[in-house]
Amino acid sequence: MTEMLRSKAELRARLAGWKRAGETVGVVPTMGALHAGHLSLVEAAKAECDRVIVTIFVNPKQFNNASDLENYPRTEHADAEKLAPYAVDVIYVPGPEEIYPEGFATSVAVSGLTDGLCGAFRPGHFDGVTTVVSKLFLQTGADRAYFGEKDYQQLQVVRRMARDLDIPVEVIGCETVREPDGLALSSRNVLLPEATRAAAPVLNRAMVAMAEGLRTGADLATLKAQAEAAILAGGFERVEYLELRAADGLAPMTTLDRPARLLAAAWLGGVRLIDNIPVG
Ligand SMILES: Nc1ncnc2c1ncn2[C@@H]1O[C@H](COP(=O)(O)OP(=O)(O)OP(=O)(O)O)[C@@H](O)[C@H]1O
Ligand SMILES: CC(C)(CO)[C@@H](O)C(=O)[O-]
Ligand code: BAL
């Protein structure tokens, strides 16, 4: 079984040898409860880097809701078993004091990109993400870092943060892995009440139909209203947002004059699901 390291001192000792040997290091940051989406990031890292570190840390600073943090699935033993076939070099599972030692007083925040979409509905969330991810980049000294497109806004925000702070890491986005019915894999999917699981792909289906409509030139507002109605009729309680944004930079868009992304968040069975797909 792959070595699990719990302190940055142990991690630093391991890194020193790799760096001396001129080996490239890839990191896959996660909050655990691993699924095939995470494993696709591990596969990409293994293919491109000499050494691979998977981090598992349920970051309290990025949860804007106490019950979301409390209910977040924690499955460390199963996670290690799922990673075993990939033979990564280290699973880094820092305790809270390794990330937020007594007296920790610093926050890393990206403005602009974090204003809308998930940023508007999860106050403080992205500051928590960029604070922890900057620490994980610095602690692991990674040359490359792998993130899922499932969390598309997060990917853009992390990329901007690394660029703005001159952290010498290449941030790589990997395609969303989905269930056969289209539902994007997510650690929170296990929290969906059984009776609601069948309704979950309605979100992706409505987005795909909306993207097709956009490609044929139909009116954005009409398509959006139709998609929201379909999502609610399918059993979702609420659509938080459903927006067309520039694929690069996330500026709001009304026409398909450059590559775009359709992004959505909606609630089903008390669980918040997000998804996004390319358009144009
Ligand atoms: N279906 C997926 N396809 C590809 N990457 C994914 C997928 N789901 C998550 N990831 C990526 O895995 C990394 C770790 O994500 P995280 O541990 O939060 O899992 P998650 O499934 O996104 O959980 P959550 O329920 O918090 O959304 C992130 O870069 C995330 O984008
Ligand atoms: C990047 C991350 C591991 C930071 O806690 C988290 O936001 C996630 O799992 O996507
Ligand atoms: N997958 C992004 C982490 C979060 O939802 O908090």
Automatic annotation (TrEMBL):
It catalyses: (R)-pantoate + beta-alanine + ATP = (R)-pantothenate + AMP + diphosphate + H(+). It is an enzyme of class 6 (ligase). Pathway: Cofactor biosynthesis; (R)-pantothenate biosynthesis; (R)-pantothenate from (R)-pantoate and beta-alanine: step 1/1. The active site is at 38 (proton donor). Pfam families: Pantoate_ligase. Beta-alanine binds at residue 62. GO terms for cellular component: cytosol. Its EC number is 6.3.2.1. GO terms for molecular function: ATP binding; pantoate-beta-alanine ligase activity. Its main location: cytoplasm. Belongs to the pantothenate synthetase family. PANTHER family: CYTIDYLATE KINASE/PANTOATE-BETA-ALANINE LIGASE (PTHR21299), PANTOATE--BETA-ALANINE LIGASE (PTHR21299:SF1). This is Pantothenate synthetase.
